[in-house]
Amino acid sequence: MSEMIDCPSPNHDARDQPISMVVLHYTGMENAAVAIERLRDPEARVSCHYLIGEDGQVVRMVPEDRRAWHAGRSYWRGVREVNAASIGIELVNPGHEFGYRPFPEEQMRALLPLLADIVDRYDIPRANIVGHSDVAPSRKIDPGELFDWGRLAKHGLALPRPTRNLVDPLWTDGGFLLALERFGYDVSSPKDAVSAFQRRFRPEQVDGEIEGECRAILLQLLLDRERGHTR
After folding, report:
1. For the segment 64-83, what is each residue's pLDDT rounded down to a tens digit?
2. FRET label pair with 203: which of 115, 143, 150, 159, CA 20 to 30 Å apart?
3. Which of 30, 54, 81, 90 is catalytic?
4. Active site residue 90
5. Considering the domain 5-154 in this protein, what is its CATH number?
């Protein structure tokens, strides 16, 4: 990983909650320079703690003990002010608007040690390593279906996708949404919440439709949590 460089943003304020999660984003802009400029613009009122370029360069923009403004209106597992409880990491990627593409090897290789260090220092559970779309499903779709959550899971830095012993519980759609809310999502916009879940745990088909595989994956995630396997 390249040596970390500092490029401070003025867009931050005091935290009022302990750090308990990490939110991963893509920048969704034409290139790194444009993204950094916006993240440092006082009028934009957006920022992040770290930005990782496609070449693996890590840029520190806001001190971890300050609240960066990256998640916006958001919710996860009872936390309604995600910015106050999280560290935000932006991955340079043009996003769906400007030519979404896979995240390069250099970028992912730089993310792993940064994330591992943050997780270790704050004792963050795997279930609280989330995407922007997980905490704001009605507004955001990043880091998107091409992000390699499986790679993070192999390093103990994200929940793995359940693949074994899957059983469809045959919940009604309402039952699925109740289970999804229990898992941690804001389900006030049901189709968006289902799409966010698919984007995270079944990215090959993101359509917002509740079906057997989604039900089976969610059931296993909840069972694993009850058995203490998902921290």
Report:
1. 999 999 999 999 999 999 99
2. 115
3. 90
4. yes
5. 3.40.80.10
